[in-house]
Structures are given as structure tokens and as C-alpha cells.
Amino acid sequence: MSFTPPTYQYGFWVKDRPYFRSPHGLTKKAVEELSFQKNEPEWMLKKRLEAFDIFFKKDMPEWGADLSGIRFQDIISYLKPTAEQSKRWEDVPEGIKYTFDRLGIPEAERKFLAGVSAQFDSEVVYHKIKKKLEQQGVIFCDTDSAIRNYPEFFQEYFGKLIPAADNKFAALNTAFWSGGSFVYIPQGIHVDIPLQAYFRINARNMGQFERTLIIAEPGSSVHYIEGCTAPVYSQDALHAAVVEIVVKKNARVQYTTIQNWSNDVYNLVTKRAFVEEEGEMLWIDGNLGSKVTMKYPSVFLKGQKARGEILSLAVAGRAQHQDAGGKAIHIAPETSSLITSKSVSHTGGRTSYRGLVRVTPNAKRARSHVQCDALILDKDSRSDTYPTTQTNEASARLSHEATVTKLSDEQLFYLKARGLKEADARSMIVNGFLEPVVKTLPLEYAIELNRLIELQMEGAVG
């Protein structure tokens, strides 16, 4: 099979002169300096140092993708690109503004976003929210600002859904977190257009550790969209984020991620939502690019009739391993969950579904369905499924379906006989396979995701 490397349009980088840069390596001194630079309260520094100790005590996970290539001694844990955050696009430094202009951030803001936040390496460099939402009491800001301006939320929720001891990379994030988003939606408020955050790694050997916290009060709703890219370097970068979401009674949160990292990024993310009575949480998780992804959004259904849905999409090409999936933990009666996984592997790429459904003894009449569908485009690619189901409740109704499909010569022949080129025929088959996930996105994002998938598929014709 011949292979032409796909075009990665976000592989550019800009020369930057950061306001502050930590030395290479993960050290206690680096944690203390980061906290000092941010002028944080003493309780947060204490949490960071406790997490730092946990990180070094915990072993690297050996059950998923190969992480042996991560060189923690080379990682830059904190890079502050500017002295101050900007609220006017004109005030953003030229090199950073050039980067986000090419990524379409200002254009997207003007067209259809309720608010936008742009993070460059370790810090949010630009943020803006529509005045109407501010007047309704909606809070959308970077996490560093939130810890200063809304400390009551942080002390109540920070690390409660995902404690530092949860896993090695949650501990790493808790020790070195910087940037990310804080969202608070007051009771009964419905945010009808999306809030968006965009995370960009620019520096070599960068470790990006953003922290996101979303709180939806009873009867509220919000859709938060996250996009990610990075340049192409010969050295590997690390993205280890943590996302905590609180969905209160009868509230609804949708969290959409379209990550298109370059092939030298280890993407290791912990995402978890607690859902109270009759609340609804929807994760839409699109993973393209990266060297390795390990990410399993989870829902803890804590209130009666709470509902959770996870739509996971992964596309893996040469030298890529996308290990993704979802977790649903049923704790209360009459809760329901749906996990749908769609994966495509081509030109030697590997995808894995890894999921968990757990039903506790109190979750009477819980319902869950898992659907895993994999499409393999050539003999050099691979797909694996690792589902786990645990139940202690006889009234629960659980089901699991899985399919693995190989691209057949008959399908290609049929489409080519109707005038399509082979590359177009393959794209049509892949787009049709992924359509159930893509159709859940707002129109603009569905178009962008289809375009990214086409770019990923370039060179996948042998």
C-alpha cells in the first residue's frame, strides 16, 4: 500500500516571547512558582502540592495505550504568553492573534457564539461573553479568574468529582493546572447558543493542563463546545486536562469536543459529570489526530430518572492509537444511559473502545444500552473492544451490541462503477458510517468535522 501523509492544516507555529516560562521538568519548585505567578490562595497551593506527591507515587497505567514515550523531564509545565488577558481582539499580541485568526476564532465569535475563550499554551489570552448573558447571571470566564472572583464555587466543587488520587494524570493536572473554563448557569436560565473554548498548544515540549468546571443549576441548560489543535514538532507534547460538570435537578448540559491534535501529542483526559434528579448530560467526543488518546467521558447518575448519553467518535491513521469510550454509573432508580462509539482506523492506525456500565443495588429499573461500531479500511489497521458491565440490581435492563466492518472491494466497485473516484468513494462510506454522530452537532461544526475527517483520510487510498 502506498501512503501519502495527510495534510494537517493546523501544523503551523508562531515565534513567541512568553511573559513567563517554567524550566523543563516537573518539580515542586515549578508548582510553587506557578502558584506564585497566579497569586493564588494558600488552600490551592496546598492542593497542588498534595497532588504533586500523589502523581509521583502512582504508577503509569499499563492497561491502555503505550505511554512509555512520555518524557516528563522534558515537559514545560507552565508558559504564560502575556501579562494580561484581553477582552478586545485588537489588544491580543500579533503572533497570538495571527494564530487564532487562522483558526477562525474571531469569525466564529461574530457569527454564532454566545461567548468565546481562547487559550494559548497555559493561559487564556482572550475572552468575551455576550452582555445579555451577563445580565442574566451567567458566568463564563477562565478558571484562573474564577478562583479569584468566585472562590465559594471552587472550594465547594474543585476536585470533588475528580479527586487528585483518581488517576496519575488527574493528579498531574491538579498539581499543574492552568487555564480552562468556568461556567455557571443560574436556575431556570437557558443559554440557547453555544459557549466555546479553543485550546492551542504552540510551544515545543509543552504540557497543557487546563481545568474546566461547569455548574448548571436546576432547570437550566447550556451547550459548551471545545476545540483543540497543536503544531507539528519532532518532540512530543502532553495534553492532560480535567473536566468536572455538575448537572442539577432537571438541568441539561451538552459538552462537545472536537480535538484535532497533531501526531506528536499525548492526549490524556479525565472527564466526569454528576447528574441529579431528572437531569441530562450529553457528551459528544470527537477525536482526530494525536499520537495517543486515552479518554472516557463518564456520567454518574445520582438522581432518580437522571439520563446520560455519550457519543464517542475516533479516527486513527498511521502511528495513532485512539483509546476512547465512555462510562455510565447508575446510582439512583429509573436512570438511563446510552453509549455510542464510532471508530475508523486506516493506514495502520488503531482504535479501541473501552467502556464501563455499572449498576448499584439502589438503581432499580435502570436501563443502559451500549453500541460499538468499528470500520477498518485496510489490512494494516486494527480495532479492539473492551466493554465491562457490572450490576447488582436484578430489575436493570442492560444491552450491548458491537459490529466490526471492513471496507469491501464490492462497495468500492459499486460506487466506482457509478463514476466516483476511489478516494471519493471511501470518503462517502466513512461519512455515512459516522453520520449518526455528526448529525448531533450544530450545522457549522458538522461541516467542519466532515472537512477534518476528509483531511484525515487523505493518503488513505492504496
Give an overview in words.
The protein is of the alpha/beta class and 462 residues long. The protein has one domain (20-407). The chain has eleven helices and 24 strands. It has helices spanning 28-38, 42-57, 94-103, 105-112, 131-135, 143-149, 151-157, 168-176, 409-416, 422-438, 443-457, and strands at 20-21, 79-80, 115-120, 123-129, 139-142, 181-185, 195-200, 207-208, 211-216, 221-229, 237-239, 242-247, 252-261, 265-275, 280-289, 292-295, 298-301, 307-316, 321-330, 336-345, 350-359, 367-376, 382-391, 397-406. The strands form three sheets. Strands 5, 6, 8, 9, 11, 12, 14, 16, 17, 19, 21 and 23 form a twelve-stranded mixed beta sheet that branches. It has a ten-stranded mixed beta sheet with strand order 4-3-7-10-13-15-18-20-22-24. A hairpin with a 2-residue loop joins strand 3 and strand 4. Helix 6 crosses helix 7, helix 9 (409-416) crosses helix 10 and helix 10 runs antiparallel to helix 11 (443-457). The N and C termini lie close together (5 Å).
Shape: globular
What amount of the residues lies in strands? 35-45%
Low-pLDDT stretches are: 1-15, 95-100, 105-115, 119-127, 230-234
Helix coverage percent of residues? 10-25%
What structural class do you assign from the helix and strand content?
alpha/beta
Q: Give the C-alpha Rg.
A: 21 Å
Q: For the report, how would you describe the main beta sheet?
A: 12 strands, mixed
